[in-house]
Specification:
The complex is a heterotrimer of chains A (230), B (253) and C (81).
Chain A: E1 9-13, E2 16-19, H1 20-39, H2 49-69, H3 74-92, H4 106-128, H5 130-135, H6 145-180, H7 186-216, H8 222-229
Antiparallel strand pairs in A: 1-2
Helix pairs in contact in A: 2-3, 2-7, 3-7, 4-6, 4-7, 6-7, 7-8
Chain B: H1 5-138, H2 146-159, H3 162-171, E1 178-182, H4 188-202, E2 208-212, E3 219-223, E4 228-232, H5 233-247
Parallel strand pairs in B: 1-2
Antiparallel strand pairs in B: 1-3, 3-4
Chain C: H1 3-40, H2 45-75
Helix pairs in contact in C: 1-2
Classes of the chains: A mainly alpha (230), B alpha+beta (253), C mainly alpha (81).
């Protein structure tokens, strides 16, 4: 049994090495794009059952963003919603035999966390202006500036490791069980993986939401969760 | 721990592309359609509320009209009741007046009847008494009281006013006669006696004829052309009867 | 089998075992507190259980950290070779 930390290279394109998670991600992207293209022209004022379900999901996301950030969800919905849907589908792609979830590899999680990191800074500056955003680092006192800067990186790191550790450990444990007893035994663990995947997608999205909300302002409830995450 | 930087970069790009794709094909259309539906629902609601408002207004107007109608009806009712009361009072008044009139008329009729009855009874009683007297007298011999009657007659003749006595005499002069009616046939001496008595009473000689008239019952009657001297039971009875029937206020009926 | 490998395996075992104790206790307390809250306020059960799940996942992350460290020690030990 190979290391769960290693990534398999599928092919190389000149200097670019394309690894397995990238390929799986492309597959997911194609899937989601096809779904979007299929869904888009079928949207109507009078919703069908599936459209109502989709709308319920979107509206639930909007409500969650509004509740957490106490702001209009419009600018954040696309980013946060995409992150949630992508992580969820990536986590659940372990159900398909022979596919490792992209999130079980630290590069994908790092990519997501970096996007969140950049988004926090971008939305913070956009909402407050550069000076005001930088001033938030000296929020309680000036002494907190180094701690706040460190926290910005550590919480990104914890975001990476949380998602990576959860998904990778699930895949790893299922792999170990599979090597010990082939039939039926891994099923409860796989079910647990699905639950963990969904919860982790939710947590990742909520934490991103909280970070962006903290940068944008108006909500102080983010601090508790940041401290926990750090 | 080895991190493949190419993978990291590729995944970042992938996720960003995915963000764009989903934003374009999923989130924005869905939120747009949700917003559109909310707009439509809001418009529908506002339309419905305005329609309801109109309906309420119409209902309130209808209520007002109904209240007006009610008031009018009450007014009419009141008016007609008053009219009915007045009519009733009038009718009652009339009826009581009629009743009084009728009662009066009835009383008058009763009085009349009573009077008629009384007079009828009187008449009957008179006739009955006459009948009784007649029957009783029919058993009396007619010439029994001739002398008494003759005396009486003479006294009456004497008590006549002079003019009528003279008339009685003078009228009989040119061959006329005084008729003496008696109830029975008189014998000659009776006739003589009567003639003597009458001449004595009249103070003049007049021709006399004697005639029998049974209706006199008892008594004498002297008839000149202008004067009649009655002295008989018939005349007495006639007078009594006259008095009896005349006794009632409305006699003669 | 040199000493380094032996120490690494022992370290991984210790990391996972001790790393599991804290989160286990914490999860127990969290669930107990959530049950208590739901018993007090059944109408808030939805919010409480949602928050509980998130909190449990957060706590579990600690154990996962330990697992990641153990796996690093086992599979990506920078001192071996």
């Amino acid at each position: 049994m190979g290391s769960p930390l290693a990534t398999k290279v599928v092919f190389t394109l000149g200097p670019v090495t394309v690894t397995e998670p990238v390929v799986v991600t492309w597959g997911l992207m194609v899937l989601l794009t096809l779904a979007g293209i299929l869904i888009r022209p079928r949207l109507s004022i009078i919703p069908s059952r599936s459209q109502a379900a989709l709308e319920a999901i979107v509206v639930a996301m909007q409500d969650l963003i509004r509740d957490t950030m106490r702001r209009s969800p419009e600018p954040y919905l696309t980013l946060l919603g995409t992150i949630f849907i992508f992580i969820l589908l990536a986590n659940w792609s372990s159900v398909v035999p022979g596919i490792e979830p992209p999130t079980a590899h630290i590069e994908t999680d790092a990519a997501l966390a970096v996007i969140v990191f950049v988004a926090v800074i971008y939305f913070g500056i956009r909402a407050r202006g550069l000076a005001a955003y930088l001033r938030t680092f000296a929020e309680p006192t000036l002494l907190m500036v180094p701690l706040n800067i460190i926290e910005t990186f550590t919480r990104t790191f914890s975001l990476i490791v949380r998602l990576f550790g959860n998904v990778m450990s699930g895949v790893f444990i299922v792999g170990i069980i599979l090597s010990l007893a082939g039939l039926l035994v891994p099923i409860p663990l796989m079910a647990l993986d699905l639950l963990t995947g969904a919860v982790q997608a939710y947590i990742f999205t909520v934490l991103a939401m909280v970070f962006i909300g903290g940068a944008v302002g108006e909500t102080r409830s983010a601090d508790g969760k940041q401290g926990d995450a750090a | 721990m080895h991190i493949d930087w190419w993978t990291l970069a590729l995944q970042t790009v992938n996720v960003l592309i995915l963000v764009w794709i989903l934003g374009r094909f999923f989130f924005r259309p869905v939120t747009a359609i949700v917003a559109k539906r909310q707009e439509a629902a809001k418009k529908l609601l506002s339309d419905a509320s305005s329609i309801r408002h109109q309906a309420e207004e119409a209902r309130s107007q209808a209520d007002k009209a109904r209240a007006e109608l009610d008031a009018q009806r009450l007014r009419f009712l009141d008016q007609s009741r008053q009219e009915a009361m007045a009519e009733k009072a009038r009718l009652l008044d009339e009826a009581s007046r009629d009743l009084a009139k009728m009662r009066e008329a009835a009383a008058a009729a009763a009085e009349r009847d009573r009077v008629a009855c009384d007079s009828a009874m009187m008449r009957h009683a008179g006739e009955l008494s006459l009948e009784i007297a007649r029957r009783l007298l029919s058993r009396v011999p007619p010439d029994m009281a001739l002398q008494t009657f003759a005396e009486e007659l003479c006294r009456e003749v004497r008590s006549l006013p002079d003019s009528s006595r003279a008339g009685l005499i003078s009228m009989s002069k040119p061959g006329g006669t005084i008729e003496v009616l008696t109830a029975t046939d008189l014998s000659d001496e009776q006739k003589q006696y009567l003639r003597r008595k009458l001449v004595e009473a009249l103070g003049a000689e007049v021709p006399m004829t004697f005639r029998r008239d049974e209706t006199l019952m008892v008594g004498l009657e002297l008839r000149g052309p202008t004067t009649v001297v009655r002295n008989s039971w018939r005349s007495d009875l006639e007078r009594i009867r006259e008095e009896l029937t005349d006794d009632g206020r409305l006699g003669k009926t | 089998m040199n000493w380094l490998e032996i120490v690494s395996i022992a370290a991984a075992a210790i990391a996972v075992s001790f790393g599991a104790i804290g989160p286990a206790l914490a999860e127990g307390r969290a669930v107990a507190a959530a049950m208590d809250a739901i018993a007090r306020q059944p109408e808030a059960a939805g919010t409480i259980s949602r928050t509980l799940f998130v909190g449990l996942a957060m706590i579990e992350t600690m154990a996962i950290y330990c697992l990641v460290v153990a796996l690093l020690v086992l599979f990506a030990n920078p001192f071996i070779r």
